[in-house]
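Why does residue order matter? Because the sequence determines the fold. Keep that principle in mind as you read this record.
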Amino acid sequence: MSTAKPLTEPAIASQDSGADDSERVPTDGSAEMIDPEALQAIGELLQAASQYGLGVAFEPDGEGWKVSYIPGTPVWEEYELPSGELSNAYDLHIAAAAALKPLVELGEQAANYFAEQDQKRA
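Structure:
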């Protein structure tokens, strides 16, 4: 059993307005600060993904961050749609912000596709 302390605390934004909302997340054995703007961009991305029944993965890759979508609801699984990359950038804030537009476009296209498939079945 290891007695070493974890590198960081979980990345959770504080509700205390006087607190520092920057959080640390581990990346390749070190900790990286997540600023409030990045947390805002991540929150907006997760909210949009939720509306379309998708999950989102944030993967540090040694050179930056890759943001991908993951099919999350039975509707996506029913049509066997794969997961895929939304953005890739050096900075987490930029990667999360850049992923929003393609995620929304994908969600809208998928909603139209699902509606067409449902009409064909009826």
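The CA atoms of residues 54 and 105 lie 13 Å apart.
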